[in-house]
Design a protein that fits this description.
With about 220 residues, the chain is of the alpha+beta class. It is built from 5 helices and 4 strands; from the N terminus they run ααβββααβα. About 65% of the residues lie in helices and about 10% in strands. α2 runs antiparallel to α3, α3 packs antiparallel against α4 and α4 runs antiparallel to α5.
Length: about 220
């Protein structure tokens, strides 16, 4: 007797789905993700430190030409190998003043723009790391998933505008001119954040239904 491939495929899919929905597997996955969150937080903190040390890259426009991936921490911006630098998804351009210099205040402003988004995301991952306490499908975990999704949503939606505002303020008080193109990945950041918000609602609603059944019985 031959079993149709379509039926075999459905059976395999059902077994895979049942395994993924198993609470034991979910708890192990959550524990693994907790350590991943910690690693991400450490790397982001290192990025903030490097940014404060003047190793954040930007496009520099000076009297000697334009230099891609220049950093504040060095005077020679000619292309050469370097390590421990920070790249961002934003397209940042800095123009030197009449003395062909970049003021410290400009560097502080660039570091502040980088830290603004990074610290918010670090907090979001810190919240996500708490999604593992006993049973995975709990109201507490749904709460942390909701906070993570909301924070990522707010970061994706409002941080680009705050960066533009900071860039304008820096240009007003500094002799350097700064421009920034940001928000290119807004949609790709909003969709996952919405998915976490929906997941939190599904867990919350599932717990509510389970409570209704338990009280009925």
């Amino acid at each position: 007797m031959k079993i149709p491939l379509s039926s075999l495929y459905k059976v395999m899919n059902m077994k895979l789905i049942q395994r993924l929905l198993n609470e034991s597997f979910a708890k192990k996955s959550a524990l693994f993700m907790r350590y991943v969150c910690y690693i991400i937080i450490v790397f982001m903190a290192l990025g903030i430190i490097l940014s404060c040390m003047g190793r954040l890259t930007f496009s520099l426009h000076s009297n000697f030409g334009t230099f891609e991936h220049a950093i504040y921490a060095e005077e020679n911006h000619q292309p050469h190998s370097r390590s421990f630098i920070i790249h961002t998804k934003d397209d940042i351009h800095v123009w030197t003043n009449t003395d062909d210099q970049i003021y410290l205040f400009t560097h502080i402003g660039l570091s502040a723009m980088f830290a603004l988004e990074t610290i918010a995301i670090m907090i979001a991952y810190w919240l996500l790391s708490y999604v593992h306490k006993g049973k995975i499908f709990t109201e507490t975990n749904a709460h942390y998933l909701l906070l993570y999704g909301l924070l990522q949503f707010l970061v994706a939606l409002f941080v680009p505008f705050i960066k533009l505002l900071l860039c304008t303020l820096i240009s007003l008080v500094s002799s350097n001119t700064i421009t920034i193109a940001t928000g290119q990945d807004m949609l790709s950041s909003l969709i996952p954040s919405i998915a976490f918000i929906v997941a939190a609602y599904i867990i919350h609603y599932g717990i509510y239904l389970q409570d209704e059944v338990d009280h009925t019985l």
